[in-house]
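User: Predict the structure for this protein chain, please.
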Amino acid sequence: MREVVIVAAVRTAVGKRKGALRHTRADDLAAIVLNEVVQRAKVDKEEIEDVILGCVTQSAEQAGNIARTALLIAGFPTHVPGVTIDRQCGSSQQALHFASQAILAGDMDIVIAGGVESMTRMPMGSNYMDVKPSVALTKQHDIIHQGLSAERIAEKWQLSAETLNEYAANSHTRALQAIANGHFKQEIIGVEVRNDNGETYIFDTDEGPRAGTTANTLATLNTVFKEDGVITAGNASQMSDGASAVLLMSRERADELGVKPLAKIVARSVVGSDPTLMLTGPIAATKKVLMKAGLSLADMDTYEVNEAFAPVPLAWLHDVKADPTKLNVDGGAIALGHPLGATGTKLITTMVHRLHRENQRYGLLAICEGMGMANATIIERL
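Assistant: Here is the predicted structure, written as structure tokens:
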């Protein structure tokens, strides 16, 4: 049976909204990681058979199939195609799944999967242009804002504001420690940016984590979605800018080219979930991917569950009976940010490098997605 292997994985540092990457176009940003991932793998751009990128807000500079425009900006030959997909927050994770499925099917041997999002230059939701959901949809389902979904999850799982803020503060602590220990240095490609004075510098450190963040400081923030609720800007993911890319090959083609694999894709899953609660999908997606892999959660050495809102990983921890010391060990989106379309392969990139750094074997990634969906992926270090 064919195997799909990861031979290179890279990301930019994540910029805060209106931060270091505010002057950088999304297509230019995506081109940087596309160029870097082939250089790291030492693979000729001629060999790439497809580029699949995730991007959620496909408007303005992110419109017009940004996968194709970015690969052309990066100097790929014109015969290399590209396609852009939107599975909400899991878009680039789904790009990874589609790429691996193309390789498993025998249609392709070398594919780049990745994602990009500039939430500064293309604000989240701007592509809706004030259009409301179809009445045919709202007659069947209670369609609410994700923040209200997070409030309902916190209520259903009996998660207090104190619990959420403690979790969020710990995300910042872990992220700051990871940066101090150099955990992200190898996976990040520096990006030349300019400040408002026109001066240039290399941006290569995630700028979301805040020193001095504690549960007490977070408790002073106002709730955002519900007056007597628990969700604040401090226990939700940060709006961010960034890009990431992973180069996938069939094991046979990697061997032919003498390219050393970093990891292999063991199993993939995607599920639909309640579109009102919306963010609980990682629970079912995790159970499904473990079943497909023939593995248990105890076999996993590390796992990432995207911190869209603090109730999401906490509800997941409760329901799958996971070990909290293995979850988001280098911080999550509450501290490091969540550049929507880029997050999936960003977290896979972090996980691949962690597995090698810590001499671990298996990693699991699960991401909740808008309108009630989730992807999960298991990878194994090689």
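The longest helix spans residues 161-180.
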